[in-house]
Amino acid sequence: MDSVEEEIYQVRKLEISDKNKGFIELLQQLTVCDSVSDEAFLERFQEIAKYGDDHVICVIQDDNSNSGRIVATGSLFIEKKFIRNCGKVGHIEDVVVDSSVRGKQLGKKIIDFLSDHARAMGCYKVILDCSLENRPFYEKCGFKQKEIQMVKYFI
Amino acid sequence: MDSVEEEIYQVRKLEISDKNKGFIELLQQLTVCDSVSDEAFLERFQEIAKYGDDHVICVIQDDNSNSGRIVATGSLFIEKKFIRNCGKVGHIEDVVVDSSVRGKQLGKKIIDFLSDHARAMGCYKVILDCSLENRPFYEKCGFKQKEIQMVKYFI
Asked: Are the CB atoms for A151 and B126 separated by under 8 Å?
């Protein structure tokens, strides 16, 4: 990526207007994500905003094209614990890069942004769950495999 | 476990007075957990309490003995997402049962309590990370292995 592209692909926090820039459609590349009404989006946005720096969603907007679409995102929330001397842990979730811009290291930019935030907030570690297939990517971001993830679905 | 023991080992939410009933010492069986001052405990307790039903720590007190000590605990916090139709996910953390009372299914009681809470709060799933060694226990609680956990330590 040259320096011009570096300038174009900046990470910033999610804004309400990003809903109309393809944010939801981007999440649909990750998992089941039905279309969300403007009201539902705003309500959830405000619920998350209440947590302040303890729950951050970041995005990259593609200013390289006329579309100005959101092409990468990831979220981080901070869990407060009693262990580790009343320590804090950052949880990274819902990382996705638009299939049209893969290979430009936007995923790494997202992970670095969220990890830096977690560290700045005083977390002693940051964790995430991923498929075995995505392990090499996260290793490049400085992560190591530790445990296994278990899940119980209600619906 | 007979019905008398069933009555004795009830799950309830963490209270401030549990600090003097061995709550921190119990967490020390799980991981690094230095002794915590009363002030630091109260501050963290209040920070977590602000989240209301979105962050619950539960405990089991041993009323079977004169000690009245806390012998099991686990925590759950609820993450608000945009995916899955603005869905919610329950994250289970820091589950530990005192080594002296293992085999009484207290761990399952803790997991069931936290899972039931997540379901009641509208989560579409509940997730946790554990060692491969603990997988059979969580399978008995209705969980299935899904992904892998990656971690990056800052300290």
From this structure: yes
